[in-house]
Design brief:
Length: 247
């Protein structure tokens, strides 16, 4: 894509801002700032990845993945304000999921152990896990709020905090996986996923692109389940006081 063609893509942003102005949504500043920030971030990471791909240095690969996990943790943590210690639990859930997912892919030789494969797939895995964490925390706050009387009653009958909050945890993990499961049901029929589309545009065979997309689809499903379950195990006590009563 030429620089001129890339510049013309700003037409879509202008249309969005005009529509926002017309409907008095007040999103013009957010759209403008998001456009500038998004473009700069992508340009920056593009040059960084260009350098890393040339060096293939293990330390740089680990460093980039660590930064991805940190940023994902901060973003997902916004969904759980007031829960002390939630950030390291989110980071642990995402990191464990990343290690297990990438370990299986490399151990089973599903992907090549090169930067070209590790960083993009790690980024997609971490991004998916971040969304799962955010959805889980949102749902848990709602579940605890709506089930407070039942949880208190179970605690009064002698149940442990884990037993009392178990149903809320299960419903929250299920809710966090809904977008992933819905995506599996409609992929190829409603949408052509980004990785597959990108490979086709780049000139790859559609069949080859589909194979890689199936890999991502299956890996995302497993990583979503792992992230939700791990975070539920690590975080459920945060909704209780030291005396093990609901906050």
């Amino acid at each position: 894509m030429s620089a001129v063609a890339l510049g013309f893509t700003l037409t879509f942003i202008m249309i969005t801002m005009v529509l926002s102005r017309w409907q008095k949504l007040g999103l013009e500043k957010d759209i403008a700032w998001g456009t500038i920030r998004g473009a700069l971030q992508l340009l920056f990471i593009g040059y960084v990845l260009h350098f890393v791909f040339q060096t293939e240095h293990l330390g740089l690969i680990i460093g980039i993945i660590a930064i991805m996990i940190m940023i994902a943790t901060q973003n997902a943590g916004k969904r759980a304000k007031g829960l002390k210690g939630i950030h390291w639990r989110i980071a642990a859930a995402i990191a464990i999921t990343e290690i297990l997912t990438m370990g299986l892919m490399l151990g089973l030789q599903i992907i090549k152990p090169t930067t070209q494969f590790i960083i993009p797939i790690s980024g997609m895995t971490i991004g998916s896990s971040m969304i799962v964490c955010g959805l889980f925390l949102n749902q848990m706050n709602r579940e605890v709020g709506s089930s407070r009387d039942m949880i208190d009653a179970l605690l009064g009958l002698g149940a442990t905090p884990k037993q009392a909050i178990q149903q809320a945890l299960q419903r929250s993990v299920k809710a966090s996986m809904i977008p992933t499961i819905d995506g599996m049901k409609t992929v190829g029929l409603v949408q052509l996923p980004g990785m597959m589309t990108g490979m086709i545009i780049a000139g790859s065979s559609p069949i080859e692109a589909v194979r890689y997309q199936i890999l991502i689809l299956f890996a995302f499903t497993a990583s979503a389940a792992m992230t939700g379950i791990i975070l539920s195990i690590l975080s459920y006590k945060l909704w209780f006081t030291k005396e093990m009563t609901l906050k």
